[in-house]
Amino acid sequence: MGYWCADQYLIGLRWFQMDVCVQARQILTQAGINRPCVAESYVWESSRDIVFLIAFEDIRPPERMSDVYLLNIDRAESIVQGMLSGAEIPPIEVYPIVGQNTEFRYALFDGYHRYHLSIAAGFARIPALIVEDFFGRN
């Protein structure tokens, strides 16, 4: 089961997050992706690291600073072209959420564009590396 939009995961976050979802869908539509993908995820870079396929409902939706709220068009189009061509795209990076009463298991560390574009593309899960939270954000 894929998710066409992140609306259900953005409840409680700032309204500008909804704009990112709309923008991601527009970028995908312009690239020729008009319906949800049937693949489970995009093709990711192979490396010596262990990559997990994590369901979106396990990742706390990312927030951005109030002055940076939309996707960078060039970056987003590059990722979409990689998805369309089957190129290897780096996995996102998440860190475990520990010691908090939350429905989410992970928080996004790196991969804001890949996260939103993958949801908009209809992928069910996303390739992710699990990293430590060196900044104490838990």
From TrEMBL:
Q: Which InterPro entries match?
A: ParB/Sulfiredoxin_sf
Report the source organism: Pseudomonas syringae pv. philadelphi
In Swiss-Prot or TrEMBL terms, this protein is called: Prophage PssSM-03, ParB-like nuclease domain protein
